[in-house]
User: Fold this.
Amino acid sequence: MNYIRVFTFVLILSFLQVLTHTLVVLLFGEVSQVGSLLYFINIYSPNVIVSIAVLSWLAIKQTHKVYTHVSVVCILSALLIISINSVLIGEYIPSPFWYIDLGLSLVCIVISVQIGRCLIKSSGHLQHNKLLNKDKK
Assistant:
């Protein structure tokens, strides 16, 4: 496990998710109907796009145990954000839509790794491709 890379990507992903969420709230304001389709599109779509971009970047950089690294970064980033929110609010308030968060995290992990692998193959990094093929055996 590349702990320095994991730590770096946890910080990058957490920072960009908080920044994205803050910008979404500033641009669109609070959605009055929590649970409506507009709420989910406004809140989740930008963060999913940011997560896929950052995790795909990690998948490109990482040569072995890609799913493990991407999953650990995703989990630790979520835990970091939950911890910071809990400290700032003064209590832990669980997301009422945790099952959607979990499902989207799994989708982001799978899509990110696949995008990363496709970009590696299409870019012609022969050495990196040899390492990926070696992992498959």
About this structure: The longest helix spans residues 3-28.
